[in-house]
Amino acid sequence: MLDRLLEEGALDAFAMPVQMKKNRPGTLLTVLCKPEDGDKLTELIFTESTTLGIRRRDEQRQTLARRWVTVATQWGEVRMKIASLNGTVTNYAPEYEDCRRSASEKHLPLKVVMQEATRQFLRRGED
Amino acid sequence: MLDRLLEEGALDAFAMPVQMKKNRPGTLLTVLCKPEDGDKLTELIFTESTTLGIRRRDEQRQTLARRWVTVATQWGEVRMKIASLNGTVTNYAPEYEDCRRSASEKHLPLKVVMQEATRQFLRRGED
Amino acid sequence: MLDRLLEEGALDAFAMPVQMKKNRPGTLLTVLCKPEDGDKLTELIFTESTTLGIRRRDEQRQTLARRWVTVATQWGEVRMKIASLNGTVTNYAPEYEDCRRSASEKHLPLKVVMQEATRQFLRRGED
Amino acid sequence: MLDRLLEEGALDAFAMPVQMKKNRPGTLLTVLCKPEDGDKLTELIFTESTTLGIRRRDEQRQTLARRWVTVATQWGEVRMKIASLNGTVTNYAPEYEDCRRSASEKHLPLKVVMQEATRQFLRRGED
Amino acid sequence: MLDRLLEEGALDAFAMPVQMKKNRPGTLLTVLCKPEDGDKLTELIFTESTTLGIRRRDEQRQTLARRWVTVATQWGEVRMKIASLNGTVTNYAPEYEDCRRSASEKHLPLKVVMQEATRQFLRRGED
Amino acid sequence: MLDRLLEEGALDAFAMPVQMKKNRPGTLLTVLCKPEDGDKLTELIFTESTTLGIRRRDEQRQTLARRWVTVATQWGEVRMKIASLNGTVTNYAPEYEDCRRSASEKHLPLKVVMQEATRQFLRRGED
Fold first, then answer.
1. Which end of chain D offers a freer environment for a tag, N or C, measured as fewer CB atoms within 10 Å?
2. Where are the alpha helices (DSSP H) in D15-109?
3. What is the pLDDT of residues E91-124, one digit of tens each?
4. What is the SS3 assignment for B90?
């Protein structure tokens, strides 16, 4: 459901377990999207889930500036996602899909590829 | 608390576990209601819980059209709740209280009654 | 992170576990603050966490009137936080830090100190 | 489900939200019972839930000594559950069902009745 | 991680959010496997996750008898998983992967395919 | 509570939100300890919490070999915790308390200190 919403244009989506009336467990789904995608995604949620009601509200969203840097590892190239606030790098992380592909091709643990990509990225700062 | 709020006019209510400051566990209670019920339910929450603060915000709510269909099972009648989007049925579910009553009277598992009511409902589509 | 936000002026802060896309666990952080502190706390969250986006919205907040009463226990004074709705006391609780300090000094279980402070507070009503 | 299990002899039962394979939310049900009730409760869970498997293990359980004390409030009698460790009272709490009945009969908030019962219990220590 | 464990022979795997020391959020991973797969899966978890310790215990596991029934829908065949206790059917559910494939090929909501497969299965009982 | 248990000799401790009977939220506390510390910690939990019962079971625990490496950052020394499986490093992480102290002294974000310590550690591998 989460991945389906992202394919259809949601900016983000996540789920939380909640306790509902009559002691029943439920799931609260939260979806972020551009205002113009609201109706389409509302219809998708009604069609794909068993919910009877959806709440909508306007929110302001601030995001860090993001860019991609490609690093070379012995098992292939991996993109690093770099986030900056006022020009200062605050976060960096290897792209999950790139690492998973290399790990799968080379029969390596995913964690090994992610650690190596991070190491190569941090080494660049040395130059 | 959830059931009490629904009795007093809340449209929906659910609870989520949260982690608060100083490493203490807490519960976030969310209540949906019509704007005119806001003050009454706010007072109820302050009176019945130990919270010191309640936040309120306006939200738009979209719901599916709902209707009830009664089906006959060998253990009595059960209402099915039918939800539709633009005229197409998207969800159906036996009413919990109806099934629970039949199950209790006939000493049957609740699940057996719910499955049978659903089966009878789907059979109708055959006619 | 929660305690850091409260030091910097947040009125409240709490965290909830969420399930994100691609089957990854995450944490949803919620921070309440005065409108004029929004920019400062947004920058703090970007600097201290790995989030790439923060959502903001306006909410109305209603709080109970609060006052402090000091009670004497055999292990020292403890403040009780008293909350009232329309002049009626609805909640009372011993201050965590006061009890923790007494418990630590006297090598007593924290719970014993909290129970005794509550008992002394309720006795006052007898006079 | 939880209340049903307790009716049938479970010593305790609680539920936890879990994240299952293929990104689906689930609920982990934990039931404590005497060894001789294991088979009966296993069958009940299979009959009433949609689970396909149940795990069982032996555990040692230590409980506090418990006794009941009845206190009089202006709205009727309420039992207090008192727990002791090596002869020292470590916990006390008003019985939920007793308070709920008084609150319902007198149209009072449940919390008011629970607070008053606790107050009357603690006053006894004064004598 | 969950799907990886199942590929390598785990009988089941699920994750739960936990609150760890120093106010940090964590995830508790539970894996069920045959005794002879314990060492292999322990090594996999150490290699793929950041955990520093794994606990193991023996448990008895009881499962319902399961069989597969294939039903025909207008969009292709779908397997139903049927679970029985002492010869009585207690659960039935359409196979997720079969429905997802049909839904994707025919550009239908997944829920529509799952509902139709269930309806066809229940109709069989009519004959 | 978690930190208190660790001070008294627990090997690990964590908490999970659970849903209890009568629709009440609760917290499941899990504590790992050596067999000889079981009685002491059981008594501590009974004394400090409101629980009425504690379950105990034996489990096998496997841990990675761990060692400490000290790295120099421009803001002081930070220990890195290195975990290995069969001689291969599988995890490394800067020690939280060391980073927090440097961050507090130099008025830097905690994350900046942790990132720098990790960078210095990975650089060592270059030599």
1. C
2. 38-48, 96-106
3. 999 999 999 999 999 999 899 999 999 999 988 7
4. strand
